[in-house]
User: Fold these one by one.
Assistant:
Number 1:
Amino acid sequence: MDATNHRLARLHRAPRIASSRMHGFSLIEILIVLVLIGVVAGMVARNVAGGRQKGLYNAAKTQVQQLSGKIEEYALDVGNPPESIDALFTQPGDSSNWNGPYVKEKDLKDPWGTPMQYRYPGEHGDFDLWSYGTDKKEGGEKYAKDIGNWE
């Protein structure tokens, strides 16, 4: 074989790889990676869920303020706050100066789908308007805390 053919033959041969380098991942290595992925996913999910609850809580605070403004607008038109919060979208029979509807019926539910609470006369002012927060019941702490127009 001459030198040219010898070089061509060498180029066409597949490179040899040492057999000690031809192994995949062990079961332990795969399990460690899966556990790490689970830990990271858990931390991300916890932060996302906390951010969502904070966002809904802040949205409820804004909604209570806006709805309080609509009740005050009603009071300016009619002379006093409504006996029932439903009077903001349905004209009461005894109200001649009613210029509503002041809100849509769906605006009377908080971000968690619970009806807003309303009391006239109020204990904290002319009227009380509040949401029960994430736990949908009286009291609570952090994002489950009640959100009232008196705060």
Note: The mean pLDDT is 81.
Number 2:
Amino acid sequence: MKVGNQYIIPFKGLTAGEHIFDFEVDKKFFEEYSELEISNGLINIGVILNRKSSFMTLDFVFNGWVELKCDKCLELFKYSLKFKGQLIVKFKEIPEEPDEDVIYLHPNEDLLDLNQYMFDNIALNIPIQKYHPVDNDGKSQCESGMLKIINAHSYKESLNKKNSIDPRWSKLKDLLKDGNKN
């Protein structure tokens, strides 16, 4: 099911001044935008639209969580997402090149679609490296069985083993000994 016009503000009939809108981004949104690699989530988005004669400002507050896959143990976890931002909408016959906080609409437009803005800001607020949060003791909440496997195959663990010299290299040490005799 498409999210459709669920995140569109019909601003043409709005009077000058502040108007408040509330949106909810949920699993349906993340299913449509699968490139986010988010399987589930619930984000409440509050918008204060301040309408002027030649432009509008929109102040956003994102507050909620998304379900991410941990890069270390591959288990899902809830990641808290909070964000505040502002978008400026200007009306022009010939739009200029948009930047990250300003968009241009034709003066005859009467709808403002926020889908792309919501997608962009959710994507930008997801960390590049996604790990389980640590508990109050500073320990990772990753799945313990997977952590044992990872630690058993880590470079540090192999150095800590009693026989830290790879047997394939031991013959080279013999060459060094023979070379010193000459």
Note: The chain has a mean pLDDT of 83.
Number 3:
Amino acid sequence: MSFLVRKYPWTPGSATLVAAIGFIFALLKDRHFFWLLGTTVALSLSSYVWGYSTHALKYVRWPSLAHLHREQYAEVWDALAATSELAKAAACGHCDEAAVRRSAEPPLKNLIELAGVRPEDDILEFGCGVARLGLELASRCRSWTGADLSANMLATAAGRLRGVDNVRLVKLQQIGLGQLETSSFDLVYSTNMLAHLDQMDRWHYVKDSFRVLRPGGRLCIDNVDLESEEGWGAFARGTESYQGLNRPPYIPTPSTAAELASYASRAGFLQVQVHKRPPLVIVTAVKSVLA
């Protein structure tokens, strides 16, 4: 029922209106007991559905997707992003567009302060989702490219970016950035995405980021910090909740500073720096100008 309400949000209001008209008609015309009773029940039920719809649109119950493996990223996130509203909720916890834009403010602030965003930059976000940051960054750089494995996420991103002419969306066909040109970006970043990847796949994206960056290009990646109180608390609660159960393939897994910094340094980056901004750990790094 909640899926139908989210897909057709106009139905509760329409049902209530029709029931109210029927009630008034029965009251004015014949006042027959059974007609009055029937329309009263219909009006009550439609009012309940209206209230339920408000709850359903505010609180999304995610499917378990137990039939999918964690590494089936495209299938998992296409399932979670079956509608535009669900795609936004999966990306940041909000369905409302104004709330989605507000949610972009903290990661945008982190990116600008820690990695820098310049008007001449060609920027890539891997795991871009609904282009939560892309919409905010497009006016600040020369070009923004968003890459993702989920076609449904990219469809919502395309809708949000309609009318913006310096953006590009890339549907990745496999894990990593193999489809993108070598030395073609000045800044590569990812936010709120590594938590949903297997560790080996995290490494794959960081390694590929080095290749697609131009000499002197910058990297900025983040994840929930396992060593922070918030990060550890979320991890511990998840451990208790899913003990002995099949864990949803999208359940977030935190990182440590050492893990993310190791990926960057092993990929060949210099000036690898760790920034603690609870609940996140953020790593920035630079590709040598001689690379």
Note: The radius of gyration is 23 Å.
